[in-house]
From TrEMBL:
InterPro entries: PIN-like_dom_sf, PIN_dom, PIN_toxin-like. Pfam families: PIN_3. This is Putative toxin-antitoxin system toxin component, PIN family. It comes from the Bacteria. Residues 1-117 form the PIN domain. NCBIfam families: putative toxin-antitoxin system toxin component, PIN family.
Length: 140
């Protein structure tokens, strides 16, 4: 199953696990294939250097950039394209929508309220991690 994971979901699944641990398990078992484009990959690695993220990764003894590299390597990276639609409250989120369209993703998984308010984009459901995991609980 092809999924676009918002950066906040990837970071939370790796560093704060908790309720998102099953999502990371689905990635590890290759039930889910994460989809990225150059913009989403760049954001992932940029976020790794944010002070609170860096501090948490050190606290856990996790080389976050190495984990990100493995997650990206396990997925697919599609080309960047521009889409005509916008995310009114946060245009920077458009990269996830564009990635989902090019990758022909089955779902976009995000904790971002700007994306979640859309609910659907070009027939691709946008779900919170909790909603996604509730629907696919049998896979876990």
């Amino acid at each position: 199953m092809l999924v676009v994971l918002d950066t906040n979901v990837v970071v939370s699944a790796i560093l704060w696990k908790g309720r998102l641990a099953p999502l990371f398990e689905l990635l590890n078992r290759r039930v889910l294939t994460p989809c990225f484009n150059p913009e989403t990959v760049a954001e992932l690695f940029r976020v790794a250097d944010y002070p609170h993220i860096f501090k948490q990764s050190r606290r856990m003894g996790t080389d976050l950039k190495s984990v990100f590299a493995r997650v990206v390597e396990a997925g697919i990276v599609v080309e960047d394209v521009k889409i005509s639609e916008t995310v009114p409250d946060d245009p920077s989120d458009e990269k996830f929508l564009a990635c989902a369209v090019v990758a022909r993703a089955n779902f976009i998984i995000s904790g971002d309220s700007h994306l979640l308010r859309l609910g659907m984009f070009r027939d691709i459901p946008i779900l919170s991690p909790r909603m996604f995991l509730a629907i696919f609980k049998k896979e876990i």
